[in-house]
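Treating backbone geometry as a discrete language has practical consequences that deserve illustration. Part of our work consisted of pairing the sequence of a single chain with a tokenised description of its backbone. What the numbers capture is local backbone geometry rather than side-chain detail. For completeness, the protein is quoted in full, as a sequence line and a line of structure tokens:
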Amino acid sequence: MKARFRINRHSGSAIAEAPVALWFAILALFMPLLCLATITLRYAFVVTAAHEAAYQAAVSKTFSTDISTTDLCAINAADATAKKVANSFSGISVNTVSTKIIQSDSQTNTLQVHETRLNNPADTTRYVYLLETTIDGLVQPLILGHSGLFQDIPGLTGPMHVQVSSRKLAENPQGLNL
């Protein structure tokens, strides 16, 4: 007499395993890419804030002395513009904004960095003057959370420290000593 064994078919198991496999694929691939895209987008907003701040510093009439409450010096205009642009986006915080004068010698191609105003009037026959604005801040990831097992990972579970600089040509170099 032959024993009758039931034949197991494996063709229907894919339907049962598909939701679990799809869930793992989403967690393993999609979420890290979404976090990376969010950090990259917010970093681009910080770069935009640095460009706008450098532009406002470059069009200012003086470097360290305000002319009026609406006509700010380069240092104050860059600070106000950087914070205004950064506050218009979520997940970005600006810690410090620094503005420097970059003096480029057109004959020897050497650079001289001035963190304060120029001591003498600008010599535009020999030098080119640029204003550099540097933003030091934090960019928040999409999901903030501390796992408890590990330390914060910048850009994934904790804020990422960024520093962005932008240079623009000074439109009024004669005001850099004021």
